[in-house]
Automatic annotation (TrEMBL):
Origin species: Aedoeadaptatus acetigenes
Keyword Glycosyltransferase: no
Name under which the protein is recorded: Flavodoxin family protein
PANTHER family per record: NAD(P)H-DEPENDENT FMN-CONTAINING OXIDOREDUCTASE YWQN-RELATED (PTHR43278)
Keywords: Flavoprotein, FMN
């Protein structure tokens, strides 16, 4: 399986990074991982100019930045894992930039003629961390990704998130690690279905 991880936390050793580390430890050598740390990349916001729609068989954008690398990796991947903390009830800014740029660059729906979704059939999943209870923190992003998947003709494998209950105690503990590994097993089960 080719797994693309889009990591959108500004904290390289923060809660999202800790969960991601526990998840990737479960993967065996059959999983080929490509990871982008979005906060360290040059990513410009979509301006909805729709020039990407003039090229219907590949990604195209007026911005000359690092997005082409992400686009290429997304097309090569089987599974894309969006990994982000929740800030103000949604993903962090670089993740939102990538989501916007991918939906326009991958989906040729917005030009003079209706084109294809270049990444139709790919599968996405969400890993998130948050401070509020899940139903008041990640619920909007989970629903957003469900709709995102449907619009893009993607498969939504599911979401896993963990709450930081108190800054006075460590985020990672045996129960959190157990749940992270269970999510990794779900991702690996998807890999088994590919073969």
């Amino acid at each position: 399986m080719k797994l693309l991880i889009l990591f959108a936390s500004p904290r390289p050793r923060g809660n999202t990074a800790q969960l991601l580390e526990k998840i990737t430890e479960v993967f065996d050598e059959s999983v080929e991982i490509t990871r982008f740390d979005l906060y360290g990349m040059d990513l410009k916001s979509c301006i909805a100019c729709r020039r990407c729609q003039k090229v219907t068989d590949s990604f195209h954008c007026v911005h000359d930045d690092d997005m082409q690398e992400i686009f290429d990796a997304a097309l090569e991947s089987d599974l894309i894992l969006f990994a982000t903390p929740i800030y103000s009830f949604y993903c962090t800014p670089p993740m939102k930039i990538v989501m916007d740029r991918l939906v326009y660059g991958m989906c040729k729906y917005y030009g003079e003629t209706m084109g294809p979704s270049l990444w139709a059939g790919k599968t996405i999943a969400l890993l998130s961390t948050f401070g509020y209870p899940e139903e008041k923190a990640s619920d909007l992003l989970v629903e957003g990704l469900r709709r995102y998947a449907k619009h893009n003709k993607l498969n939504f494998l599911g979401a896993y998130g963990e709450r930081q209950r108190s800054y006075k105690e460590p985020f990672m503990n045996a129960e959190v690690e157990k749940r992270a590994r269970a999510f990794a097993e779900k991702l690996m089960a998807y890999d088994d279905n590919l073969n």
